[in-house]
Amino acid sequence: MPDFDINSTGERVGKVFADRIKGKTVIVTGVSPGGFGADTARVLALYGARVILAGRSLTKIKATADAVKKVPNADLKELVIDLGSLKSVRRAAEEVLGYSVPIDVVITNAGVMGTPYQKTVDGIEFQLACNHVGHYFIKLILPKLLEAPEPRVVLGVSVGHFWGGVRFEDYNFEDGKNGQSKSAVIFHGVALAERYNKLVVFSVHPGSAATNLDSTMTMEDYERCPDLSYF
Ligand SMILES: NC(=O)c1ccc[n+]([C@@H]2O[C@H](COP(=O)([O-])OP(=O)(O)OC[C@H]3O[C@@H](n4cnc5c(N)ncnc54)[C@H](OP(=O)(O)O)[C@@H]3O)[C@@H](O)[C@H]2O)c1
Question: Given this model, what pLDDT does residue 231 score?
Fold first, then answer.
């Protein structure tokens, strides 16, 4: 196993694992330009994966698709999914179940952080919905994943679990003091791995990068956060 460190680029990692990437069908959620998902999609395409670009905004999906298409022979498909709407999640899952190929890997990268308190159309706290509940999408597309010879699930997490577990008695975040969505994502990963022997599941903290993630956060919001020196 080669040494990867803070200077290792996506291309370098992709090159090392090129034989495992080639020919795989991979869904990546949250592929807006400038984020981790868009770059993940680019590197996957570069090494020969068929990439399903999934996001809530078709305009942003298309912008990323245009950028990734600079990779020769990029094999891309678009999937609109709003993780904050169970109706949209179910609709997207139906679309995936209609694909003619198995899904080898799903990377649930999409997420939000520090958004103002609000509930989704389904009455679920927005951050828990987008980061965790919406990604029950995986459960809905399981038949397609389990058709693959070696299916993988990669769940996007952070260091959020250091800040608290899941308050099951207050899942809708009524007091808004502590995060819990990324801890819930990790529990989801453990539960998936325990229930489906064929699935290999990873909860991955991508590291720290300046993306659009904190675009709704103010300095005051950051000051209210627990110790950020982990970052
Ligand atoms: N950046 C960091 O330092 C850092 C650190 C730790 C963990 N992470 C994790 O890395 C992942 C990617 O974040 P990023 O930093 O690349 O931020 P980003 O650029 O904001 O990417 C987040 C993506 O999630 C999408 N998304 C948000 N809500 C959605 C919804 N309801 N339905 C569908 N898609 C939705 C966003 O779409 P829109 O553009 O439409 O909003 C965007 O494409 C997240 O899970 C985040 O928690 C990032």
Answer: 47
